[in-house]
Amino acid sequence: MDKILHWDEPIFNLVNRYPEVKDIMVELGFHDIAKPGMLQTAGRFMTLSKGIAMKKVAMETVESTFLQHGFTIQK
Amino acid sequence: MSELINNREHTAQELTERQQTLKEIIKELHAGKSVEEVKARFAEAVGGVSVAEISAMEHALMTEEGIPVSEVQRLCSVHTSIFKGSIEDIHRPSGPEEQPGHPVHTFKLENREIERLVNFKLSLHADQFQKDDSPKIIYKLLEDLSLLLDLDKHYSRKENLVFPYLERYGIFGPTKVMWGVDDSIRAAIKEAKSLLTEYNGDREQIGKALAHIMSEVNEMIFKEENILLPMALSKLTEDEWLKIARESEEIGFCLTAPEREWIPERAEEPAEALEQTEGTSGTPQGFVRFETGIISVQQLELLLNHLPVDLTFIDENDVVRYFSHGKERIFARTKAVIGRTVQNCHPPQSVHVVEKLLEDFKAGRKDVEDFWIPIKDKFVYIRYFAIRDAEGRYLGTLEFTQNIAPIRALEGQKRILSE
């Protein structure tokens, strides 16, 4: 069964569903997410699509990295 | 008192109920009912509805109900035909944050100006500089950077007015992190200025420094508008925004200013009423009896505000209890700091200095510590005194800040009255 993530879902929800998402995000360069308190607060407003816009990471990079970990990202 | 009555929970519940109804209606549509059939129920169940609510609901449909995205998209046109009328018909003022003078509106207004400066002027001059590093272009870059330093006020308002409230709601991490980034941006701009002032021909170094500033400033705008401000809007009450708006002037604005004072739609109550419940205006009546005299509270307050120094007092638990409010404070203080611990009022980089100092005071190793810093035309003498009772118990710390430039400049003598 595929694990599905949505571009516009808060990171907080994604990590709650799949805790490993946090490490993958850090691997992708979203270091702030690992800082204490971030996930519970800013994470409720942060989404994957906002993240790539802010950090200027290519959408493809995010997609393929998640794919390697068994995640599909849905629009 | 108003903090005890939690309105937010109530409205939050109402909101989810409404979303529930909205969801049911959509599901009915999904099951094949016609638009006309559900329209009446919709109108009855839901007064005004915001676009944000619709999108939240659509999102819930996808994630919770498992309705595929394509289905929701197909339904979109139906939603609009139902919702369209009601969103536009029902008298619903635009969100308060859209109104001029609301702190969020002001922050965004400033961000547009900062963007214009950074992404247009600064970026243009940075490009020109790579082709021609003449003094003329360097001067233009210096001018841009000096203007950009104005964002110090934007950041200061965020740090000293918005963060304290977020902290009250238990949000610490992000505010600390953001404060740290603010500081690094301030430092980067100053650094670039000094590189340009003492330009040594290293174009690449300057190009890198400018590119770094541009990307960091843009990233900060993104973080503010997509995370910080929405988060603050979801937490803070209207009264809290009002207080922030009122205290903003104290720190000042960046590159622009709100066109008018923000008066929330509901606020019929005069400004004085709000302030009186806060106990901030109208010094209480009464007298204070000291060992060496009796004065009224009003006299005491005026007296402290007329001292040519800035006073700030923190208690034995490091909580800011009082600051004097003279005409020209050297470091801006706003009422929002009262009740905050001093650790949360200092930039992360200097917090350890403050903590070390307080530790020494508490342990009785020191009673006084002095600092002196030249700031523009001022020479600022900052003194900290441990306040102890007769038994020597630590009761708090007094910060005593004074511009001693005029005193240092004194020479000779003066024995007659000024004209």
From TrEMBL, chain A:
Instruction: List, alphabetically, the InterPro entries matched.
Output: DUF1858, ScdA-like_N_sf
Every copy of the DUF1858 domain together lies at 8-61
What is the name attached to this protein's record?
DUF1858 domain-containing protein
Q: Per the UniProt entry, what species is this protein from, by scientific name?
A: Paenibacillus polymyxa (Bacillus polymyxa)
UniProtKB/TrEMBL annotation, chain B:
Ranges for domain Hemerythrin-like: 102-232
Domain spans labelled DUF438: 22-88
Q: Which GO terms describe its cellular component?
A: plasma membrane
Top-level taxon: Bacteria
Check the record and name the SUPFAM superfamilies matching this protein: PYP-like sensor domain (PAS domain)
Instruction: Check the record and name the PANTHER family matching this protein.
Output: BLL2471 PROTEIN-RELATED (PTHR39966), DUF438 DOMAIN-CONTAINING PROTEIN (PTHR39966:SF3)
What is this protein's record name?
A: DUF438 domain-containing protein
Q: Which organism is it from?
A: Paenibacillus peoriae
